[in-house]
Amino acid sequence: MKILVAIKQVANLDDDFEIRDDGKDVDHDFCDYEINEWDDYSLETALQIRENNGDEGEIVVVTVGPDDAEDELRKCLGKGADRAIRVWDDAIEGSDQVAIARILTKVVEKEAPDMVFMGVQAADNAYAQTGVAVAQQLGWPHAAVVNALEYTPGASTATANRELEGGLEEKITVNCPAVMTIQLGINEPRYASLRGIKQAAGKPLDEISHSDLGLSDDEVGEAGSVSRVRKVFVPEKGQAELIEGTPAEQAARLAEILKELSGA
Amino acid sequence: MIDPAHNSEQVTRILFQDFPLWMTVSFYIIGLSALAYFGYGCYVEIRKYKRGKEFPTLPEMGAKAWKMVTDVLLHRTLKRRDTSAGKAHMMIFYGFAICFIATSIITLQEDITKPLFGLTFWYGSFYLWFSLTVDIAGLGLICGLLYMMYRRKWLALPKLDYTRPDRSPEDPDFSRMKYKREDWVFLWSLIIIAITGFILEAVRLVWLQADSTVYDYRWWSPVGNVIAEILQGVGMTSDAASTTRMYLWWFHGLIALTFIAVIPRTKIKHVFTAMGSLAVRSDLPIQRLPEVDMDQDKIGYSKLTDFNFKNLLHLDACTKCGRCHEACPANATGYPLSPRDFVLTLRELAEEKLEGKSMPENEEDLRALGTGMNQVRSETLWACRTCAACVEICPVGIEHVPMIVEMRRALIEEGDFDPMLQTALQALHKSGNSFGDNKRKRPNWSKKLDFKIKNAAKEPVDVLWFVGDYASFDPRSQKVSQDFAKILNAAGVDFGILYEKEMSAGNDVRRVGEEGLYQHLVENNIATLEGCEFNRIVTTDPHSFNTLKNEYPEFGGKYDIEHASAMIQRMLSDGTIKLDKEIDATATYHDPCHLGRYNKGYDAPRQALKEMGVELIEMTRSRDNSFCCGAGGGRIWHADPIELEKPSENRAKEAMTLEGVDTLVVNCPKCMTMMEDAVKSTGADKQMVVKELIELVAERMTLDAPEEVEEPAPAPAKEEAPAAEAAAEPAKEENKGGDA
Questions:
Q1: What phi and psi, each to the nearest 5 degrees, are found at residue A87?
Q2: How far is A14 from chain B (nearest CA, A)?
Q3: Do B519 and A194 touch (CB under 8 A)?
Q4: Out of A32, A191, A248, whose CB is closest to B422?
Q5: B149 exposed, middle or buried (CB, 10 Å; 0-12, 13-18, 19+)?
């Protein structure tokens, strides 16, 4: 059994960030980086499937990202993944979700797992497309926004609960191998103790480039993308006021604001 | 003393007088069997301790043994917080010890020196003084025991109630009846041995009233003689006394021998284990947690055999006196933890699993963590605030906190902990602080000052101020940090902070059991400090203070470090800090565990308050018995269940009982956070405010720079400041009006 879990290192914004000079992204100096929250859940899903089935099989984590992203892979290894792959080179910079999906597709083809887990979406860009795009490019079945999963390694099908809008859920069965995008709350992700992470330092972490995957320069980066960012900005609308003072003063000011807004 | 008519060698007690040979022989057989059983029991117990991990400290045992001896002889640890029990125990201890030594002297003559060398000494004036001493000792023993019986039966002390907070009545290991029975059997058997001893003495006097070498010296056994007079008064004859003596002799002898035989199997073993436990105490049991070999397959204690010899000996030393049970803030507020029951649970598990001829084959049977019989539950371990009130007061030197932390280390490895704690630990890993804020925000609090604090990471300073997480990021404590900076600045201290280079010192991370993360933080901080030029460190945070002072040296970071309150007190005394305003405050002072109990910093803050002219009214639980605010041991990263009283609320209520107190003085950013909430939720804020010691000092100084603006400041800043001040001023007045 082999499960491939794709993860992303996402940017976490400071309160007082600045936009980059070219206006197309946030200045990275104002970001902290961490693993995408959804990916914690998809790794946990994989780890639990293995634990509940005799601790057999391999879990491979993969990310497309720069050097820093290695930290997140190490944490995944610390939690119990067996092997990690990081795909990166300068040409990949500027890839959109389709180009990233193209890279991940190649990795999946190379690894030939029984199942691919990805997060529903990334916390920073929030496209929610990479997972399904990978399934599309592979020609595999997929289930998106999965909040419960029945899957036994080696089985020909998996049954997933999908979270729909309006509190509805959908239960679907898909043929395996398949791509699942995992929703928050499907489980309780474990903690990787620092000792665990350090002890996992010996686990293999391969670094490969797009050409190692047989992709040409124009299949990745901006050249391989179908969209480009024109502008990142803070919308001008909206206002906020921090109400200070004693509780009585605060209440008075709040009442004033409410009256103002309701037009009274 | 001895009548010249008597041969002094005849003034003695003839052992086995009038015994047929078979009886004497029987006695020796029974006596030796009792000793053999005692010896076997000791062997089983020691084998049990040795089944734990090795505990190599023999080289340093000498000094510790001496401390143990003086502690035992003076009963120093036993008299604390329960003087009458301590005194009663002292009477029992000395009574028992003297009777034991007396018996040993007789044995020495009768079975060793006399048969081997023909040497005798137990006669004449030595014998008479011996008799008197033993009589007084026996009387003391009985008085002590009677008080203990009275205390158990009639005082109904809560600490002697064995109801467990960590189990519910339906659990099979809930009942502690076994201990209750044992306590009483122990008291009764000992008192019966003592009383029958006296009656035996009296009966002998009646029986041998015709023998002048006995009867003329009867007042050397005053207690025995008074009873003898009574017996004679009710008409006991010499013959009747002779018969009674024979039965009583055997009765007394048999219970005494049984008592000795069962020592290792019963609570009586504490006479040995308590001494052993006191002798293996660590110098810094709570201040410096046990080192860990990080390359092992697993760390922490999850099974009995992870505990070391010392830990297992500690478990056996517990006498269930309940002092820890009473002092524990978790227990006091209804959490499922009592240090006493933690110890007893593990002790029973060890008795069950490690006393057999062979060890359980299945490793799982040795598991100490879990929800089964005599296993410690994870909620029990997470309830601990590592405030060390238990370790502080334990009269037999049990070190609970290191064991709890070792077990937490295993829980961290197994992932058995609160999701909130996980969030905090991940934040600490990612950004070096538990708030999850970007590193660059760490020095933000200092931006509001009208002077710039030196960056100790870039330029040499005399005093390096290690600010700590709460003092850096918590909005309420940031104000205190600003005050401290102003005080240092006004006092002309050459100081600096590490700005974004500082990371959490990790004290609580270690106490949570995340040793890997702790060491990661320590390594980073030590590397940073190594690159700085400074003479000493100061911190307002007792948690950072403790680990920097006591634990960093283990990793190569040795610093001259002081807590802010000690520094302030020093500067107040030598006039470096000039107080030029009067304040009118009646305060009570809440000792932070990490400054007080951990590092004995009781006096400096009190002295500082005194020098500031603050009237101090102490809470009942102060100094070494200070009641934890509940934040320690990583509990600040846990949510307290709403249905339970928070330790901080318990504390606020205590402060409220003090008449006239208008200020609750804290001396730790974490205590500040807890107590600020607690005074609000208990309504104590109607009568008092929570202030840091530092804030009181700042209030008495003229700190704020004159308001003249040297160069035109940017417009928003200019507008903001006066507006905020204007808003704050009337608010204060309004509050005062409301209170009046």
A1: -100, 125
A2: 7
A3: yes
A4: A191
A5: middle
Contact A191 B415 (CB under 8 A): yes
Local confidence band at B582 (pLDDT 50, 70, 90 cut-offs): confident
Least CB–CB distance from B412: residue in A34, A193, A245 = A193
Cα–Cα distance for residue pair A2/A58, rounded to 1 Å: 5
Mutation site, A31, A193, A241, interface B, largest B CB count within 10 A: A193
Pairing of strands A83-87, A205-208: parallel
CATH number assigned to the domain comprising residue A41: 3.40.50.620
Secondary structure (3-state) at B168: coil
| Contact across the interface for A196 and B413, Cβ inside 8 Å | yes
3-state secondary structure B59-73: HHHHHHHHHHHHHHH
Per domain, the residue ranges of chain B are 60-161, 283-417, 421-699
Q: Is A14 on the interface with B (CB under 8 A)?
A: yes
Which pLDDT value is given to residue B709? 45
Cα separation, A220 vs A96, whole angstroms: 9
Residues B697-724: tens digit of each pLDDT: 999 998 865 544 444 444 444 444 444 4
Q: Do A32 and B431 touch (CB under 8 A)?
A: yes
CB A143 within 8 A of CB A180: yes
Interchain CB contact of B516 with A (< 8 Å): yes
In order of B142, B143, B221, B237, B270, the CA distances from B146 in angstroms are: 6, 5, 21, 31, 20
Closest residue of A to B419, CA-based? A188
Q: Which of A89, A61, A67, A25 is nearest to A220 (CA)?
A: A89
Are A190 and B415 inside 8 Å of each other by CB?
yes
The pTM (predicted TM-score) of the whole model is 0.89
* Contact residues, chain A, for B417 at CB < 8 Å: 191
Peptide bond into A177 cis (omega under 30): yes
Please state, in angstroms and rounded to a whole number, the distance separating the CA atoms of residues B722 and B728: 10
* Residue A111 lies in domain: 2-219
Q: Is the CB of residue B306 less than 8 Å away from at least one CB of chain A? A: no
Per residue in B402-429, pLDDT tens?
999 999 999 999 989 998 999 999 999 9
Find the helix packing angle between B515-530 and B419-431, rounded to 10°: 30
pLDDT level of residue A13 (50, 70, 90 thresholds): confident
Structure-token match 């601990």, residue found: B384
Q: What ipTM is given for this predicted complex?
A: 0.80
Detail the DSSP E strand segments found in B223-369: none
Q: Alpha-carbon torsion B169, B173, B179, B181, what sign?
A: positive
Alpha-carbon span B474 to B469, nearest angstrom: 8
Count CB neighbours of B117 within 10 A: 8
What average pLDDT does this structure show over A224-234? 90
Residue B59 confidence class, pLDDT cut points 50, 70, 90: low
CB-CB under 8 Å, A195 with B413 = yes
Q: Edge-to-edge strands of the sheet including B463-465?
A: B454-455, B495-497, B463-465, B536-539, B561-563
B413/A contact by beta carbon, under 8 A:
yes
Class at the top of the CATH hierarchy for domain B283-417: mainly alpha
**Dist. CA B543–CA B667, nearest whole Å:** 11
DSSP states along B424-467: HHHHHHHHSSTT---GGGGGGGGGGSSSPPEETTTS--SEEE--
Asked if the Cβ–Cβ distance from A191 to B735 is below 8 Å, we say: no
The sign of the torsion formed by the CA atoms of B411, B414, B417, B421 equals positive
Instruction: Please tell me the total count of domains within chain A.
Output: 1
Counting one residue from chain A and one from chain B, the pairs whose CB atoms sit within 8 A come to: 48
Interface of A with B in 177-216 (CB under 8 A): 188, 190-191, 193-198
